[in-house]
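[step 3/7] inverse_fold.run input=structure_tokens len=129
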């Protein structure tokens, strides 16, 4: 394991583990075995580990980008969990998703909010207080 990979794994653990990511990585291991290593090294070892923003702020940026991109439900699910793991409150996650309406549109925000609901339900965070 490279230093970048170790740093990336440590960052993933810090924000709530690699559970959903591991499932996505494992699902593609037979066709693209290096993909997960590259994701861990680059996205987490290089980018997510940079100074300047805390983990929660980074997750807010990532949520906005994923919502705007659309069609990335597994990644969105993983990063909703990471946002909670980074210390964001459930209400802050909902507000971040709502903030995307003027930029990403209602259909993408409704789709993202359905994933938020599923993640919150799995973590017994419903109903929101």
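[step 3/7] decode complete -> sequence:
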């Amino acid at each position: 394991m490279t230093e970048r990979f170790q740093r990336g794994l440590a960052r993933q653990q810090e924000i709530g583990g690699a559970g959903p990511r591991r499932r996505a990585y494992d699902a593609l291991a037979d066709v693209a075995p290096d993909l997960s290593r590259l994701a861990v090294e680059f996205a987490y070892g290089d980018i997510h580990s940079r100074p300047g923003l805390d983990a929660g702020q980074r997750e807010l940026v990532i949520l906005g980008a994923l919502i705007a991109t659309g069609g990335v439900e597994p990644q969105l699910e993983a990063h909703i969990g990471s946002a909670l793991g980074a210390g964001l409150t459930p209400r802050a996650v909902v507000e971040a998703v709502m903030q995307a309406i003027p930029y990403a549109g209602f259909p993408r925000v409704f789709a993202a909010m359905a994933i938020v609901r599923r993640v919150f339900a799995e973590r017994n965070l419903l109903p929101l207080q």
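[step 4/7] annotate
The chain has a mean pLDDT of 94.
The first helix runs from residue 3 to 14.
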